[in-house]
Structures are given as structure tokens and as C-alpha cells.
Write a structure and sequence with these properties.
Elements (H helix, E strand, L loop, with lengths): L1 H18 L3 H10 L2 H15 L1 H25 L4 H7 L26 H25 L2 H24 L5 H18 L9 H24 L6 H9 L12 H21 L8 H20 L7 H36 L1
Length: 339
């Protein structure tokens, strides 16, 4: 793998040298490819356009990110920002590369979570958009537009991850292909109108499955904190090390979102029936609420407290989008009609 890693580092160096003036654009793209963006940005937008597709976004995000965590624990992928230093191969000819705030993720690098989750989630969205365009226009040319945007965005996300030294090219390719396959399969099994028990069982299954795998690997002498140690050692800015990039943060995020999705459908099966104008208001209010919920600071110590609060945060988010905000807007519009 040394040759593959070395070529990946030189590619990152060439990409940084050639496109450093677009640093802000690369950072924006990598932000839009973050798995959290699926919950915070794509989910509310898509849900108010089509409820089933919105639920599919959460479902596919949770399962694909959980599988990405499992793959990372098993595959032990390096990350460029620490491998450059740990490999000792660049003592005489060090690459001219630099780190950025999103660089210092603490989990293993293979496959890329950004590429994998984005590939899966965007497949759900673009396939729905393509079907809608085809049903309205019967034009295969217009139907192809969402798929073209899909490919372009995946390429941009992958290059952004290489640019900031978060991943090697082969990790991005592996994540993209795996995510595409998951998106195709999971989009056929969307848990719309499923009972709350299904979501409780799925949440517990994801949590206990990850814990059992973690305990089993550690029982056989595998140190699963190795990547956290390396990230802390070689990150150029210590404040770039974030708790929400740790493997257990993604686990609690996914479990919370899964439970929240079940609770939202339990409180209000089928959702609130709203015309297009109130839906626009719902989108604005939901996006504002999610933004502030996500910005609320959480204590990083002790870690268990952080994970519990992080779990609660993502349990609340689907209910804000699917129940609380639409319910408020429904009552508001109903009152105005009565007056």
C-alpha cells in the first residue's frame, strides 16, 4: 500500500498547488458532503418536497454511515495528514501540503464516509428528481440532468477530501462505489409508516451491533483508538480535533436519528397535510431551528455525557422537521382561515 499512499499524497500536493485559490470552495464542498449535512440540510428540503423521499434520506444516511463505521473499524485505513509523518518516507523530499479545519478527523480513513454517505443519499434524491422530471416531460434528456449533477457533485466531494488531506484517492473511490450500491438497495426499503417498535429495534440493533464488534475486536487485541491517537499527534491545530468526528459520535448520531424518525411517525402518522406556501414557511423555520440546535455547545468531558446529549440532539431533529414545525404552521394557517 505504500505506493498507493505515496501517489495519493503527491496527487493531494498537486491539487493543492493547482487550486489553492479555490480553498473556500473546496471547504464548502466538503462541508456539503459531510454526513451531518444530510440531516441538517438535505432532509428538511427534500421532506417538504416529498415526504417519502425525505424519510428515505434519513434512513439511507443512518444505515450507510453505520456501515461506514463498521468498515473503518475493520479496514484500518490511514489518513494522509498523519501518514505523511508516520511513514517516514518523506524526510528528504517532504510534500508541500497543508491542513485545514475539517482535515483532522479522528476515525480511520477507509472508506471515505463523506463519499460513501453522499453517494448513497444523493442517489435517493436524484433518482426521485429524475423520475419526477420524466413523469412531467417524458424527456430522457431532462431526466439525465439530475444524474449528471450527481456525478459532478460526487467528483467534487471526492476531490475536496483529497485536497484537505482527509483521504487518499482509493478511499474516496471505495466510498463512492459502496455508497452508490447502498443507495440503490436501501431506496427500495424505506420504512414509511412502520410501527415505532421497528425503529426502536433498529436503533438498539445498530447500537448493540457496533458495541459487540468494538468489544470483540478489542478482545482480540485490536486497539480501536489508534486513529484518535494519530490524529491528535499530527493535527497542526489542536482545536481542529472535534468530538463529533469520533467514531462513537457517528454511532450516537445515527441511533438518535433513527429513534427520532420513528417517534415522528408515531406522533403524527402520515405527517401534516400542508399546501405549498405553508411548506415553504415550514422549510424556513425548520432550517433555522436545526441550525440553532446544531450550534448549541455540548460539553466534551466526560465523553459519555457528550454522546448522550449528541444522541438527544439528533433524536429531536426529525421531530422538529416532521411534527413540531409543521404542526405549528398548520395551527397558524388554520387559525387564519377561521378568522
Amino acid at each position: 500500500m505504500e505506493t498507493v499512499h505515496t501517489q495519493g499524497v503527491w496527487m493531494a500536493e498537486a491539487l493543492q498547488k493547482g487550486t489553492m485559490e479555490y480553498e473556500k470552495q473546496w471547504l464548502f464542498v466538503t462541508h456539503m458532503g459531510d454526513p451531518k449535512a444530510a440531516f441538517l440540510i438535505y432532509f428538511p428540503i427534500v421532506y417538504y418536497l416529498n415526504k417519502r423521499t425525505g424519510i428515505a434520506v434519513v434512513w439511507v444516511t443512518v444505515i450507510s454511515e453505520w456501515l461506514n463505521l463498521v468498515f473503518k473499524w475493520i479496514l484500518f485505513g490511514e489518513r494522509p495528514f498523519w501518514w505523511v509523518e508516520e511513514s517516514r518516507l518523506f524526510v528528504e523530499n517532504p510534500p508541500q501540503v497543508q491542513q485545514f479545519p475539517p482535515t483532522c478527523e479522528t476515525g480511520p480513513g477507509s472508506p471515505s464516509g463523506h463519499a460513501m454517505v453522499t453517494s448513497a443519499v444523493w442517489w435517493v434524491m436524484v433518482s426521485a428528481a429524475a423520475s419526477f422530471l420524466h413523469s412531467c416531460t417524458r424527456s430522457r434528456l431532462l431526466m439525465a440532468v439530475p444524474y449528471l449533477l450527481y456525478v459532478l457533485f460526487l467528483v467534487a466531494v471526492g476531490l475536496s477530501r483529497i485536497f484537505i488531506l482527509a483521504h487518499f484517492p482509493h478511499q474516496v473511490i471505495a466510498g463512492t462505489l459502496t455508497g452508490f450500491a447502498l443507495g440503490v438497495v436501501l431506496n427500495r426499503t424505506v420504512p414509511e409508516r412502520r410501527p415505532l417498535l421497528f425503529f426502536l429495534q433498529t436503533c438498539m440493533g445498530l447500537f448493540l451491533g457496533a458495541l459487540l464488534l468494538h468489544s470483540g475486536l478489542e478482545h482480540f487485541g485490536v486497539d480501536l483508538s489508534w486513529s484518535i491517537t494519530l490524529a491528535k499527534r499530527w493535527c497542526s491545530q489542536k482545536d481542529w480535533i472535534r468530538m463529533d468526528s469520533r467514531p462513537f459520535s457517528s454511532l450516537t448520531r445515527d441511533c438518535g436519528a433513527m429513534l427520532g424518525l420513528g417517534l415522528a411517525q408515531f406522533w403524527k402518522p402520515g405527517g401534516w397535510p400542508l399546501p405549498w406556501v405553508p411548506r415553504t414557511l415550514c422549510l424556513a423555520l425548520s432550517s433555522l431551528a436545526l441550525y440553532h440546535i446544531n450550534r448549541m455547545p455540548l460539553p466534551s468531558s466526560p465523553p459519555v455525557l457528550f454522546y448522550i446529549l449528541y444522541f438527544i440532539r439528533f433524536t429531536v431533529m426529525p421531530q422538529v422537521v416532521m411534527v413540531l414545525v409543521p404542526g405549528f404552521v398548520h395551527l397558524l394557517t388554520a387559525k387564519n382561515k377561521q378568522e
